[in-house]
Amino acid sequence: MTPRQRVRVLLVDDHPEVRVMLRAALRLHGGFEVVGEAEDGAGAVRLVGATDPDIVLLDLGLPDLDGREVLTRIRAARPASKVVIFSGADRDDRAWYQDRSEGYVVKHAELSTLLGVLESVAAPPASSDGIDLPRDLASVAVARRFVHEVLVGSLAHDLTDEAFLVVSELAANAITHAETDYRVSVAVSPATVRISVRDSGPGTPEPRLSEPGATSGRGLLIVAAVAASWGIDSSQAGFKTVWADLAR
Questions:
Q1: Is residue 85 pLDDT above 60, yes or no?
Q2: How far apart are CA 120 and CA 102, in angstroms?
Q3: Which of 231, 233, 235 is nearest to 244 (CA)?
């Protein structure tokens, strides 16, 4: 990346040593520019408007504002900024934050994991292919073949195993829970492969722990474990899209 193409990042964490570590990691990695640092929620909200960041790297354990409040205020102050959560603990309400952010990484994860998520969030999809499929479990195999063809054509076939898990789970959710036809899309960028499944069914899927011995119910947990980031988008036309990004 040239300096003009650097991704502008606002660091929000109440521990100075964590901000130093993050600033150094982003500088060494390249392609990122730290445009500001905040040690509390109020400072984050103020700086997000003043620095115009592409990404806000947000700690949830701030001394002045609850995590939900500071995230809501940041979104209101600059809706265009993407937010990646960098949390000290895997919270019980993680799903709430994942629905409202572009990434969620716990602090005990490898630093390379965080950098991969930031790359994924920063890089827009460069090319996209899609296929419409019927509400039939047999169509899941067709979805997998379609994804495989796109990966091979994009020289991203090393992600085949992970991509098969993701598309299988998302397609099965559309068929069994949304109970509608669905569309599978694959968007490939230099940093990520995004697999999306769109349906017109009601409700919003959420990760949940299944009962011991159950043979289903773990789909989104599997997606969350495999993907660098994932989320759910809704449209005014009545469609919802569940997507997952795999880091290249």
A1: yes
A2: 9
A3: 231
pLDDT band at 184 (very low <50, low <70, confident <90, very high): very high
Q: What is the pLDDT of residues 186-229, one digit of tens each?
A: 998 877 899 999 999 876 666 555 454 544 446 678 888 889 88
H or E segment and range at residue 75? helix 67-77
Query: Are 7 and 81 contacting, i.e. CB atoms less than 8 angstroms apart?
Result: no
- Side chain identity at residue 137, one-letter code: L
Q: What is the pLDDT of residue 216?
A: 47
> Residue 66 in contact with residue 44, Cβ under 8 Å?
no
Q: Which CATH fold topology does 127-247 show?
A: Heat Shock Protein 90 (3.30.565)
DSSP state of 159: G
17-45 tens-digit pLDDT: 999 999 999 999 998 999 999 999 999 99
Could you name the CATH architecture of 3-122? 3-Layer(aba) Sandwich (3.40)
Q: Which of 10, 9, 21 shows the shortest CA–CA distance to 46?
A: 10
Amino acid type, 20: V
Q: What is the pLDDT of residue 236?
A: 67
**Positive or negative CA dihedral for 107, 110, 115, 120?**
negative
Q: Where in the chain is the domain with CATH 3.40.50.2300?
A: 3-122
Spatial neighbors of 185 by CB under 8 A, at least 6 apart, are: 128, 129, 130, 131, 194, 195, 196, 197, 198
3-class state of residue 17 by DSSP: helix
Q: How far apart are CA 215 and CA 232, in angstroms?
A: 24
